[in-house]
Amino acid sequence: MPTVGVNASTGYTSNNTVQKFFSGDERTGKGAGNTVFRAGLELNWTAFDGYRMFAAKERLGLLEQRSQVFTANAMQDLTTQIQTVYFSIVRVAQQIEIQEQAILLNIALRDLAANKVKIGTGTSLEVLQTTNRVNADSSALLNLFDQLQQAKISLNRLLVQDANTIFEVPTEMPAVILPKLEALTQMALNQNFDVKLLQFDEQIALTQIKEERAALYPVVAVNTGFNYNFSRAEVGFLLSNRSFGPTIGLNLTYNLFPGRDVRKDIANAEIFKENIRLSQQNLTANLTSDIALLYQQYLALQNQLDLEQRNLQTASTNTTLAQQLYQSGRATNFDVREAILAETQIRDRISDVQFRQKLVEINILGLAGVPLLGN
Nearest-CA neighbor of 367 among 275, 277, 292? Predict the structure, then answer.
């Protein structure tokens, strides 16, 4: 950008003057005054500085874009934290639901055992054992309610709202079908925020090299202005002198020996660019490996989930059959309690696998640079 400036100065001198002319005449003055006044308006503009101004403009634009990507990355990290806490709440809510179902089954078993005692076909031991199971499950349920409340407080804090804000969550983990491994890997290499940041770092390093190389080029500057000069003398050839008018000029400066510092700065910028390139290679390898490991973990959890869901069908049938056999006297109270416990454990394992799979899914999509909002 051009610079515009104004300047003004004035001065007064008083001298004892003796002037001798070729004609032999002589003029003297004692305490002769001399008044000078100068004023001017100047405009200076560097028309060419070795492309430094263009490189600096490009670098500033890249820094602005990089800051936007950095902000988006921070928002993605916050979203990841929010979703992790949210699904941990869903996980605890599922555990509460499972525990409540187990309590209802054990209460039904306790009532059945009490009825058998009344008709003389059961013992009080069976009632006490089932009651102990109900009490233990109830204690565990209270602990789960406490965990749920703590998790909700954590989510409220992340959402920057009152810690005691009341809300409910569904007890289902929404399933998301992930793309194939190859597609996820390509998405990560193209959209991952760390990849984008390094790409901007590389471009910024190139502009820094251009800025350093600018010292090897000449500098062309244009200047123009308007000057006014006035002087008055009591002794001399002229009584007064006044001049004013525009000026224009062109300056060219070239440093014949810029010195070792410029060469060193250019070399350092080149090294910085090479370090970024190596970081990009390392990040690419890590992303490819991390995506592959997480995807394999996701598939393994899906296989485990399918197996546990088949196990749940068997366990539910087993619980129903055990209750019927106990009612007819062909199974013990212990058999029924074991059947209920087995079904409860399977339901809890299914909930745990779904939660772990959801966390893996969030990590995969985060690495792939996929927005997590609404996932």
Answer: 292
At 308 the pLDDT is 97
Class of domain 50-217+258-367: mainly alpha
Please report the pLDDT score of residue 234 as a whole number. 62
Residues with Cβ within 8 Å of residue 182, at least 6 apart in sequence: none
Structural domain boundaries in the chain: 1-48+219-253, 50-217+258-367
pLDDT at residue 119 in the model: 84
pLDDT at 21: 64
195-246 confidence digits (pLDDT tens): 999 999 999 998 988 888 887 788 888 889 898 888 887 666 666 788 888 9
